[in-house]
Write a structure and sequence with these properties.
alpha/beta; 5-stranded mixed sheet; 5-stranded parallel sheet; 16 strands; elongated
Length: 556
C-alpha cells in the first residue's frame, strides 16, 4: 500500500479486500479475503476458499456462478468492494457511540430522506461547543492549548479557529516594561536554545523567520508531541479525492463552505511545506514529564492530556520557551520557565540590525492578519506598510491598525503614534496625497472607535500638534463622520482650565510650604505671625465698596 488512495479506490476483489455478494435467491454474504483466515461465520475467508477464489479478480457488478450439489446453481453479484481497513473504519463509525459511549470525537446523525434538520442541529450544537471553548480561553483565562486538550481538539486547529470566531490570540500585555524584560531575556539567554510549542512552530514557519529565531536564541527544539500535532493538523485529506463541503454555524445562521479537489490539494501542499520547514529547522525530541508534579500539574495533565506541558518540560539547561499564548507562558513562569513571543524576538533582531525593515514589516503585518496581538506599532512601520501595500486599498494598514485604539489601550501612546505619522509625512512629496489622507482616516477611525464620549479630548490633543492643512483635514474628517468639531474646542478649554487650576493649586501649595519654612522657631514653639485685620461686611452692617466709591459717598 502506497497511501490512503489505495484504500479508497479498491474496485477489484483481491486479497485484503472486503466483499459483499448479493445472491439471486435474495440473500447477501459479506467477508474479508485474508491469507491464513478461515472463519466463514466471523466473516473471514482464505483465498483458497471456493467462493473467495471465484470472487478474486472480479469487479463491481460482475457475476459469480456457484454450482450446487443438489438443486439449481446460485448466482452471486459483486455488490460492494472495500479495502478491509476502510470496511473496519466504516464498521467502527456505524457502532461507535454504542461501543464507546464515553469517548469523544465521533457521532452519528439519523436523517429522513430530504430532511437536513438533524445535521443542521448537530452543526449548531458543535458551534455552541466551540463558543464555550473560546469563552474558557478569552474570559476564564485558560491557555488555549489546555482548552484544546480539554475539548479533545488539535491545538493548532483550535488556535487557527479563534480568529474565525472573532477572537484574538493574546500574545502579550503590550506595555514597555514587558518588551524591555523580553529584550533582557534574549540578551541573557546566551543562545542556549529555545523550545517551540506546536502553534508557535506553525506560526514561525508561515512567517518564514526560523533563521531569525535561531540567530537570536540558538538551537531550536520541538517536542515530538508538537510534531505529531502538526501532522494530525494536516489530516488525511488525500483520501477525499472528490468535491466536499463543510457546514459552519455563526450568528444564528448556518453557512456552507465548498471544497474542491484543487483547493484541498493546495491546502495539503501548503501544510506540507510548513512541516518540512519545521523538520529542517528544529531538533525534535521526545519528552518525559518530571517525576514530581504539583497537584495542579497532575490535574491539568489528567484533564487536558498528558502532553500539554511537553514544551515547558523540554526547557532545560537554560532554554527559553517561545509561545504565542500569553496565558501558557504565564503557566510556564509558575513552573520556573521563562518565555517569549514572536514579535518580541523580531523587534530585538530588527533593533540590532539582524532583520531588515522590510522583513520585519512583512512579519508584523502577517501577525496582525492572524490576529496575534496586541501588535507593537510605530510611525516608520506604518509608512513602510503603506508603501508596500499589495492590495492597493490599504488592506494591510487596516489589519495593522486594528491594534490602534483597541479596548484597554494606552491612548496617550496610541495618539502619539498617529500624531508622529501625520507630522512625519506632512511635507513628504513621495507619498500620494490621497493615499496619505486615506491612511490618516483609517488611523483616526481606529483610534477613537472605543472612546465613546471621550473622543474630543484625543482629537484636541492630536490637533494641537498639527499644521494648518492637516488641522483643516481633521475638522473636515470629523464632519464627514458626523462628529461635531466644536466639541474639540470645548474639550481643549476644559483641559486648559484644568491645567491652570492645577498650576494655581501647585503654586499656592509651594507658597504655603515656603512660608512654613520661613517661620522662626523659639524654644520648640512656632512664633505667631501677624496678619492685617480684615473688615467683615456682617460686622459693620455695610456693604464692602471699592475705595473710590467710599470716597464719593463720604463727599456726598
Amino acid at each position: 500500500m502506497d497511501g490512503f488512495g489505495d484504500i479508497v479506490t479498491a474496485d477489484t476483489v483481491e486479497v485484503g479486500t472486503w466483499v459483499k455478494l448479493a445472491g439471486d435467491h435474495g440473500k447477501e454474504f459479506a467477508f474479508v479475503i485474508e491469507n491464513g483466515s478461515n472463519d466463514p461465520t466471523g466473516g473471514f475467508l482464505p483465498p483458497t476458499h471456493a467462493l473467495a477464489a471465484l470472487a478474486i479478480g472480479k469487479n463491481l457488478g460482475d457475476a459469480i456462478t456457484v454450482p450446487q450439489p443438489i438443486g439449481d446453481q446460485i448466482t452471486w453479484t459483486v455488490a460492494e468492494v472495500k479495502h478491509r481497513y476502510l470496511h473496519a473504519f466504516h464498521d467502527v463509525l456505524a457502532d461507535f457511540q454504542t461501543k464507546f459511549p464515553t469517548s469523544k470525537g465521533l457521532f452519528s446523525v439519523t436523517m429522513k430522506e430530504g430532511d437536513l434538520s438533524p445535521v443542521l442541529e448537530m452543526v449548531r450544537k458543535l458551534s455552541e461547543r466551540g463558543e464555550k471553548a473560546l469563552d474558557l480561553y478569552v474570559n476564564a483565562g485558560i491557555p488555549f492549548q489546555l482548552v484544546a486538550g480539554l475539548f479533545n481538539e488539535n491545538p493548532i486547529a483550535f488556535a487557527v479557529g479563534i480568529p474565525e470566531m472573532d477572537g484574538d490570540i493574546r500574545t502579550c500585555l503590550g506595555v514597555d516594561q514587558e518588551r524591555e524584560a523580553a529584550y533582557t531575556l534574549i540578551r541573557n539567554s546566551e543562545r542556549r536554545g529555545i523550545v517551540l510549542d506546536a502553534h508557535a512552530a506553525w506560526t514561525v514557519a508561515t512567517l518564514d523567520v526560523f533563521d531569525v529565531i535561531e540567530s537570536s536564541l540558538g538551537p531550536i527544539y520541538l517536542p515530538q508531541s508538537a510534531l505529531d500535532s502538526l501532522i494530525t493538523f494536516r489530516g488525511h485529506d488525500d483520501i477525499r479525492k472528490s468535491r466536499s463541503m463543510s457546514l459552519v454555524h455563526r450568528g444564528g445562521e448556518t453557512f456552507r463552505q465548498e471544497h474542491t479537489k484543487e483547493t484541498t490539494e493546495a491546502r495539503d501542499q501548503y501544510i506540507d511545506q510548513q512541516i518540512d520547514k519545521i523538520k529542517k529547522a528544529c531538533t525534535v525530541s521526545p519528552v518525559a514529564a518530571p517525576n514530581e508534579l504539583s497537584p495542579l500539574e497532575s490535574m491539568i495533565l489528567e484533564q487536558c492530556g498528558e502532553r500539554v506541558f511537553d514544551a515547558v518540560y523540554l526547557c532545560t539547561g537554560g532554554r527559553v520557551l517561545l509561545s504565542e499564548d500569553l496565558l501558557y507562558r504565564q503557566f510556564a513562569k509558575q513552573m520556573r520557565v521563562d518565555g517569549l513571543w514572536i514579535q518580541a524576538v523580531l523587534m530585538e533582531a530588527h533593533g540590532r540590525g539582524a532583520l531588515s525593515a522590510q522583513r520585519y514589516a512583512d512579519a508584523v503585518v502577517n501577525l496582525a492578519f492572524l490576529r496575534h496581538g496586541p501588535v507593537a506599532i510605530d510611525a516608520p512601520l506604518i509608512r513602510l506598510v503603506i508603501d508596500n501595500d499589495p492590495s492597493g486599498d490599504l488592506r494591510t494598514l487596516e489589519a495593522l491598525a486594528r491594534y490602534i485604539g483597541s479596548r484597554g489601550a494606552d491612548y496617550v501612546s496610541h495618539t502619539g503614534v498617529v500624531q508622529e505619522f501625520i507630522k512625519a509625512t506632512a511635507d513628504d512629496r513621495t507619498l500620494d496625497r490621497l493615499v496619505r489622507q486615506r491612511s490618516m482616516s483609517i488611523l483616526l477611525r481606529k483610534l477613537i472607535r472605543h472612546t465613546e464620549h471621550r473622543w474630543p479630548f484625543l482629537i484636541a490633543a492630536l490637533e494641537d500638534q498639527l499644521g494648518f492643512d492637516d488641522g483643516q483635514y481633521l475638522r473636515g474628517w470629523l464632519k464627514g463622520h458626523f462628529l461635531n468639531p466644536a466639541l474639540t474646542s470645548l474639550a481643549r478649554r476644559r483641559v486648559n482650565a484644568y491645567v491652570v487650576q492645577q498650576a494655581l493649586a501647585a503654586s499656592r501649595l509651594a507658597a504655603d510650604t515656603s512660608a512654613e519654612r520661613a517661620m522662626p522657631e523659639t524654644g520648640g514653639t512656632t512664633a505667631r505671625t501677624l496678619s492685617a485685620p480684615t473688615r467683615s461686611p456682617s460686622i459693620s452692617g455695610r456693604p464692602s465698596l471699592p475705595p473710590s466709591k467710599r470716597r464719593k459717598r463720604r463727599r456726598s
